[in-house]
Specification:
The chain is an alpha+beta fold. Helices cover 28% and strands 21% of the residues. Homodimer.
Length: 180
């Protein structure tokens, strides 16, 4: 499985629709300060269900919507879609390509989709449990995160091993089952 492409529209500094293609192997994003490199990583985090404005370097969740510049008007919604090549079926679905998208309007109304079908955030989370992908996976290593792991509480560090061992999914399901 690998990240094939990202589409953004109205997300942070990306006012108009923009498509990034990735290939197997390493891709580096380079550019001057403030040109939107970190916004690309934020887009990935966001579409995978990030609920914390702080993690996205904003004050409120609406801050992800393009706020306008001197020559361009603000827009009404933010949209991100990411596509994974799933021909090895690491993601447990029959699809060999999986696209997850999220849209949010200024009213706060928001929607998630998997392969163009509406779904809940929970479905997005379930799809990625134990794959290392996801807002809590370790596929996105932010600044200061390594330090946090090294100096973290043993319980937090245990979570990291659970994720790597692929048992998070079962633990979450157990917790849910006990609640019901
Ligand atoms: P650096 O090299 O300094 O890390 P960077 O390339 O990572 O820079 P980003 O942090 O991705 O840059 O982009 C910051 C830019 O995004 C700023 O110019 C900021 O004004 C713009 N930006 C962030 N949110 C919005 C928004 N909602 N609307 C418009 N522009 C935004
Ligand atoms: Mg940056």
């Amino acid at each position: 499985m690998y990240l094939k492409s990202i589409e953004v529209q109205g997300f942070k500094s990306f006012a108009t629709k923009l498509h990034f293609d990735f290939h197997e192997g390493i891709t580096a994003i380079v550019g001057p300060n403030g040109s939107g490199k970190s916004n690309v990583a934020d887009a990935v985090r966001w579409v995978l269900g990030e609920q914390s404005a702080k993690q996205l370097r904003g004050a409120s969740m609406q801050d992800v919507i393009f706020a306008g510049t001197e020559n361009r008007k603000p827009v009404g919604f933010a949209y991100v879609a990411i596509t994974f090549d799933n021909s090895d079926h690491v993601l447990q679905t029959d699809y060999s390509e999986v696209t997850v998208s999220r849209r949010v309007y200024r009213s706060g109304e928001s929607e998630y989709m998997i392969n163009k079908a509406h779904c809940r955030l929970k479905d997005v989370n379930e799809l990625f449990y134990d794959t290392g992908i996801g807002k809590e996976g370790y596929s996105i290593i932010g600044q200061g995160q390594i330090e946090k792991i090294i100096n973290g509480r043993p319980e937090d560090r245990r979570e990291l091993f659970d994720e790597a061992a692929g048992i998070v999914k079962f633990k979450r399901r157990k917790t849910e089952a006990l609640k019901e």
